[in-house]
Design goal:
Blueprint lengths: L1 E2 L2 E2 L23 E5 L30 H17 L4 E7 L8 H15 L3 E8 L6 H9 L3 E5 L4 H7 L9 H12 L5 E7 L6 H9 L5 E5 L14 H13 L7 E2 H10 L16 E4 L4 E3 L13 E5 L5 H5 L2 H6 L8 H4 L4 H4 L20 H23 L4
Parallel strand pairs: 3-4, 3-10, 4-5, 5-6, 6-7, 7-8, 8-9
Antiparallel strand pairs: 1-2, 10-11, 11-12
Length: 395
């Protein structure tokens, strides 16, 4: 059985989806990640900024200076208006962006909106939550800034990895922040959760639901073929979490990864880099004004994010023409031959780009390939069963 132009795994055909051509011209950036503060008050053991292959953030300027921020605003206006974009997303990021102070972030948001007007700008802050006080929340909410928080589940799961340098867990502080956010839904962007296979997936999902997030995004820990995950089981974990979400009588929240897999199985286009073949549309500006590729590439090798381009001398269009960015806009052409031959490659898209790295090349399957295949086949099986049930008059 086929859904859209994707052969659903397990139907016995083993048919590969026809390749789609790379974009005829670069797809403009629509998501801009601004590293406004490079330091952090936590010491999470899986942090791609400070604990994995590229630790250059330790020597980056702590704050994005006003001069650099002014250049960012001008470059943003140039790109947005030059491509006549209807809407963009801007993320104030770190490190921990709230170390810059909520009033400073609110002023940045106001300036960014003025720069890209009349284009609609969705501006958010991605924070570990520990510094989100009621006053900070009020300042950001009044500035129209959405707030996303990282939390890995219940206390024991979260505090296994997300700790202060002293070793003390961060759960209590994050729990307080999320209770505040639940009372201000207009400012609540959602929760990011890094999967811990030592935790029960259903219990983890329920722990996240207790904070009433509008959306949850499950993230695989950053690993690659040179530095593989410490153990397996991620596909089974995600499948169990999917069932907890999918089988609920009332959909309490959205889960981005699961929605994306369903969307792709039904023939849609991906809206995230973790799955699917849509061209990369996100770019990072570091605190020093340097343009970078997606910051999670720091997990692969030192210098992987670098472009040698800066806001002082180059435009965002110059970044689009960078060879490494062009490759990531090539869709199926950027995949390993074994991926192109796989019947689910349009759904998994080869997996998250940093997870493909092996000794100087990203032209490999994801190190999580078996896990992604298991999840996709599981979701496809559930979807197929429901479609058959609908045809026969079931639910």
């Amino acid at each position: 059985m086929e859904l859209g132009d994707v052969t659903v795994p397990g139907d016995g055909r083993g048919q590969a989806v026809a390749h789609r051509p790379a974009p005829a011209r670069p797809v403009p950036f629509s998501e801009f990640i601004l590293k406004v503060h490079s330091r952090c008050n936590l010491s999470c053991d899986y942090c791609y900024m400070y604990e994995l292959a590229d630790r250059s953030a330790r020597t980056d300027p702590p704050l994005m200076s006003p001069d650099i921020f002014d250049h960012v605003c001008r470059r943003l206006a140039e790109h947005v208006h030059g491509h006549d974009l209807a809407a963009v997303r801007i993320v104030l990021h770190g490190g921990e962006p709230l170390l810059a102070g909520a009033p400073a972030l609110a002023r940045m948001a106001k300036r960014l909106r003025a720069a890209v007007s009349p284009t609609a700008a969705r501006i958010s802050v991605q924070t570990n939550g520990t510094l989100l006080t009621e006053r900070a929340l009020t300042v950001l909410a009044e500035a129209g800034v959405l707030i996303g928080v990282s939390l890995d589940g219940d206390r024991s799961t979260n505090d296994r990895h997300r700790k202060y340098a002293s070793g003390r867990g961060s759960f209590d502080a994050v729990d307080r922040a999320l209770r505040l956010l639940a009372g201000r839904p207009e400012a609540y962007a959602g929760i990011l959760c890094v999967v811990d296979v030592d935790a029960d997936p259903r219990r983890t999902y329920q722990a996240l639901l207790a904070h009433r997030p509008p959306i949850v995004d499950f993230l695989l820990p950053h690993a690659n073929w040179d530095t593989p995950p410490r153990r397996g089981g991620y596909g089974r974990w995600l499948s169990d979490a999917f069932d907890a979400w999918y089988d609920a009588p009332v959909r309490a929240t959205r889960v981005r990864l699961f929605e994306e897999v369903l969307n792709l199985l039904l023939g849609g286009q991906s809206r995230t880099e973790s799955v699917g073949l849509s061209p990369v549309a996100a770019v990072v500006v570091n605190t020093d004004g340097g343009y970078e590729q997606v910051d999670t590439l720091r997990s692969s090798y030192p210098g992987a994010v670098d472009t040698d381009l800066t806001v002082f001398a180059h435009s965002f269009d110059d970044v689009l023409r960078h060879p490494a960015v062009a490759v990531r806009q090539a869709g199926v052409a950027a995949l390993a031959p074994s991926c192109r031959a796989c019947p689910v490659h349009r759904v998994c898209g080869g997996g998250n780009y940093p997870h493909r790295y092996r000794a100087g090349s990203f032209r490999n399957p994801s190190v999580y390939c078996p896990d992604l295949r298991l999840l996709i086949e599981h979701v496809a099986g559930r979807l197929r069963a429901d479609l058959v049930g609908l045809r026969s008059g079931g639910r």
